[in-house]
Amino acid sequence: MRKYVRMRSDRVLLIIGLLWSVGAAFAWYRQWIGPIGGSLFVGIGASVIAAALVAALSPFSESAYRRFISLGIDEFWPSREAIKKRNWVDWLAGVNHECVLLGIAHGEWCKDARFSATLRDRLVHGVWVKMLFLDPNSDAAALRAHEEGNKRDTREAIRESIKFVWEFRQGLEAGFRNRLRLYVYNATPSCGLTWIDDFMIVTHYLAGRVNRTSPALQVKQPHIGMERSLYDIYAENEQEIENLSVEIDERNIQQFLSHRTLTKEGANTEGRGSDAVLPEETRGETKGA
Predict the structure, then answer these.
(1) What is the secondary structure of the chain as a DSSP string?
(2) pLDDT in tens, 203-212
(3) For a 10 Å CB count at each end of the chain, is N or C smaller?
């Protein structure tokens, strides 16, 4: 019933206005109310009818626009460069339960000066965080590296980011460390996802172009419209990618580190999390990249 009223609000408003006006006019005619009250109530009804007519003729009532809203799209940006840089960590700072970061290299997260402190704060406050990287040893990473050409060394950028986040994780207290889970996936990297509790920032990759120029949209679970929204579709896609992922741990971390930076320390980077610095050569991407 509530969904019906919301989807047809202009019609409901028109009916209410007509009933109100007719009822007020009838009561005025039968002298149940005085001329002042009668003119007031008739005027209110007429205003409601006028509002309904304006709503019926406005773009909001267009079926295509209603369908757009029902998909759960809350905001849209033609390029991720149009999003304020501090918004990304601000969104992370606002998470209360769970956060999922799905991307290729997550290079921009790693170089953001506020990222490590904000992530640590959320983990300490009980938030669970998953970060999914494209497997740098996969054919998909090789293809993406070919698409990006000389814009960056994609596979090396992934390895450096994994090293950065792994060292950060190893620097956490044991009680908080397991709340940060790292994965590598072997699948076509079609989009990046920043999933904060009940909303997502989705960024779609364009072959041959750097990731920061990709369009982005914010989606939420809609209260009206289609039973299966974009929010549901992206949530299912993330779960499918996670099913194709391998969790990074002490047994396999060396497989995903840079051959240039791998040292005798290997996976034993205890206590260096807060001091990890991303090399300059991997900088210049955006969140989810």
Answers:
(1) -HHHHHHTHHHHHHHHHHHHHHHHHHHHHTTSS-HHHHHHHHHHHHHHHHHHHHHHHSGGG-HHHHHHHHTTEEEEESSGGGS-HHHHHHHHHT-SSEEEEE-S--HHHHH-TTHHHHHHHHHHTT-EEEEEEE-TTSHHHHHHHHHHGGG--HHHHHHHHHHHHHHHHHTS-HHHHTTEEEEEE-S---EEEEEETTEEEEEE--TTS-GGGS-EEEEE--SSS-SS-HHHHHHHHHHHHHHTEEE--TTTGGGGS-TTT--TTTT--TT-GGG----GGG-S--TT-
(2) 887 765 555 6
(3) N
Backbone angles phi, psi at 259, to 5 degrees: -65, -20
pLDDT tens figures, 81-124: 888 889 999 999 999 999 999 999 998 899 999 999 999 999 99
Angle at 19 between CA 15 and CA 21, to 5 degrees: 115
72-282 CATH choice from 3.40.50.150, 3.40.50.300, 3.30.230.10, 3.30.870.10: 3.30.870.10
Per-domain boundaries in the chain: 2-61, 72-282
Q: Report the predicted TM-score, pTM, of the whole model to 2 decimal places.
A: 0.68
| Residues in CB range of 8: below 8 A, 6 or more apart | none
